[in-house]
């Protein structure tokens, strides 16, 4: 199926009454602050919700319209798309939206105007593209080990489809790698054919900072709006078990995100933080024009050499933005009042309308 023509989206946007825009997204992931922020900036809001999932949006009073669907993936159905367009909707993408709507559908059949850059979502989803973007932008990432026979030092092993889940393990030698692969096969966590897909990279020993940037297409600036660190099961539970008892648990650590802590980074590291944001946004402009547009997140580990190493990126609003629904230490510095990522997004739409430049930031 062919890709949606950009002109088709702009024609739909052209028909919209700009005085009567709705901000819409799937009711999941990081939508609460998107709805709240959109309402604060004077927009109507609509949540596409699976039956039973509308509760928080109703109870917190942040949505005007609920479009109920049998399953989240129905957001790409013709009727739902028509309902959204009838409401003059601009969709704010987030992790669940991309996962349920599906990348292929977003690129080929979902023609509701969205805030962001449709093309960049694939660069987050495919590990090789993600590495290419980061490497060509000059961002420091963990070194890749191409052959398990060449493991020297501690490595992190990742499998596709198991991101942040059970499929990660740590190994410090080729023997340990082979043993753990066998154990994972026995548990049914991976299949024989997954083994060739194993991605092996340097284990970066450090503290986790997920940095939430907002790239303003209107101002051509990468703003640092907030930071979080992940609270992951079971790794964060294991550190509470005395070392001598950890082995008795016989539990391989897993990295399933269960929540997020707001965090601030040592002030002397902020030049590196801005440098990473500037480098990746410049790189993205060349590789995936027009580049980043709106929220994105660089997930990092900071070593005791005070080096910020990026191990993952989100090319849309990341779940950790939920830590600053009422603003963060950083967003306060820009705006002097509580500003969530969602409100910043709504503000960009508002400015786009005011400056008659909405077409530049809609995809
Ligand atoms: P991800 O699914 O890529 O977000 O990774 C899940 C978790 O694995 C992260 O939050 C980190 O705690 C850990 N992690 C990922 N890559 C590395 C690495 N290269 N070195 C050390 N820890 C890592």
Helical run tally? 15
Q: How many structural domains are formed by the residues?
A: 3
Query: How can the largest sheet be summarized?
Result: 5 strands, antiparallel
Number of strands: 13
Low-confidence parts lasting 5 or more residues at pLDDT below 50? none
Structural class: alpha+beta
Radius of gyration equals 21 Å
H/E series = HEHEHEHEHHHHEEEHEEEHHEHEEHHH
- Which term fits the overall shape? globular
- The helicity comes to 25-40%
Provide an overview of this structure.
- The protein folds into three domains: about 5-115, Rossmann fold (3-Layer(aba) Sandwich); about 145-200, ATP-grasp fold, A domain (Dna Ligase, domain 1, 2-Layer Sandwich), CATH 3.30.1490; about 205-355, D-amino Acid Aminotransferase, Chain A, domain 1.
- By secondary structure, the protein is of the alpha+beta class.
- Helix 2 (about 30-40) packs across helix 14 (about 340-355) and helix 8 crosses helix 12.
- The strands form three sheets. It has a five-stranded antiparallel sheet with strand order 11-10-9-12-13. The protein has a four-stranded parallel sheet with strand order 3-2-1-4. It has a four-stranded antiparallel sheet with strand order 5-8-6-7, with helices on one face.
- The longest helix has 18 residues, at about 270-285.
- The two termini are about 20 Å apart.
- It is about 35% helix and about 20% strand.
- The protein is globular, with a radius of gyration of 21 Å.
- It has 15 helices and 13 strands.
- The structure holds adenosine monophosphate.
- Adenosine monophosphate binds near residues 204, 232 and 301.
């Amino acid at each position: 199926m062919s890709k949606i023509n950009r002109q088709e989206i702009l024609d739909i946007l052209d028909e919209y009454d700009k005085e009567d825009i709705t901000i819409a997204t799937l009711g999941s992931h990081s939508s609460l602050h998107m709805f709240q922020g959109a309402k604060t900036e004077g927009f109507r809001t609509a949540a596409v919700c699976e039956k039973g999932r509308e509760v928080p949006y109703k109870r917190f009073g942040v949505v005007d319209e609920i479009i109920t669907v049998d399953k989240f993936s129905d957001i790409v159905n013709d009727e739902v798309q028509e309902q959204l367009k009838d409401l003059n909707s601009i969709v704010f993408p987030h992790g669940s939206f991309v996962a349920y709507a599906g990348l292929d559908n977003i690129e080929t059949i979902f023609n509701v105007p969205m805030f962001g850059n449709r093309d960049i979502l694939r660069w987050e989803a495919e590990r090789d593209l993600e590495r290419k973007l980061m490497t060509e932008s000059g961002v420091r990432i963990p070194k890749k080990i191409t052959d398990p026979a060449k493991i020297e030092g501690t490595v992190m092993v990742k499998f596709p489809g198991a991101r942040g889940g059970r499929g990660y393990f740590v190994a410090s030698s080729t023997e340990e790698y082979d043993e753990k692969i066998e154990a994972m096969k026995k548990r049914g966590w991976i299949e024989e054919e997954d083994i060739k897909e194993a991605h092996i990279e340097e284990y970066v020993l450090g503290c986790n900072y997920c940095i939430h940037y907002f790239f303003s297409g209107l101002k051509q600036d990468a703003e640092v709006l907030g930071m979080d660190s992940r609270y992951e099961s079971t790794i964060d539970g294991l550190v509470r078990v005395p070392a001598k008892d950890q082995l008795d648990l016989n539990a391989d650590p897993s990295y399933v995100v269960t929540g997020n802590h707001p965090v601030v980074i040592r002030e002397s590291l902020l030049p590196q933080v801005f440098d990473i944001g500037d480098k990746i946004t410049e790189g993205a402009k060349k590789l995936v024009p027009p580049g980043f547009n709106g929220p994105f997140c660089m997930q990092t580990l900071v070593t005791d050499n005070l080096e910020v190493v990026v191990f993952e990126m989100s090319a849309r609003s990341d779940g950790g933005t939920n830590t600053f629904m009422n603003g963060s230490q950083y967003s306060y510095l820009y705006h002097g009042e509580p500003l969530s990522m969602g409100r910043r997004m709504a503000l960009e739409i508002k400015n786009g309308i005011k400056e008659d430049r909405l077409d530049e930031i809609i995809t």
